[in-house]
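Our platform keeps sequence and structure together, in a single record for each protein. Because each token names a local backbone shape, the row as a whole describes the fold. One such record is reproduced below, unchanged from the form in which we store it:
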Amino acid sequence: MPRSKKYNEEEVLEKATQVFWRQGFEATTMQVLEKEMGINKFSIYASFGSKTELLSACLANYKKRLNKLLATIVEGGNNITAIKEYFYHFIAFSKENELGKGCFITNTANEFSGNPPKNIQNQLENYTNDVRNAFKKALISQKYGSDEEIDELADFLLISMFGFSTATKIFSESQLHLYIENLFNTINKDNTVNEIK
């Protein structure tokens, strides 16, 4: 008869997510995971598989949280202003006390330098598509240019978001706020010019 687990898988997975998010994959040893998760490595392997499979489970766990953040775009009116607010919400989302952790997905993509395991690669691509689609839907809803212009702007915002997520680890809130204001002032100015043309 199999032994019952004396721990909650969701709770230990959240602890592992925080460790990987804060320290990265390579710097997180099994000893660190045992200590932070409060279970031994045999239990980790039994519940989640290898260290890479645990990372994959952590990314999926993180994505649930991020989906709630993306939902704020729709809740905020599904327009360019709501996307701007998403950038602001992300600052708080990426902080742990005063420590900026950036985006777990972006951190992982940077760490693997373009050569992640297939299951990790799929998650990174799915996340990227989700963010881009959320931006694109908001731009379509606001009729923010032609189809081609909307595609280009969605890509621009996505790339800006990835750079911004890294910036949250380093820069102050006032610097980050100024970046957001300048970014969206530029976008709105360019759109006004296009309308005049």
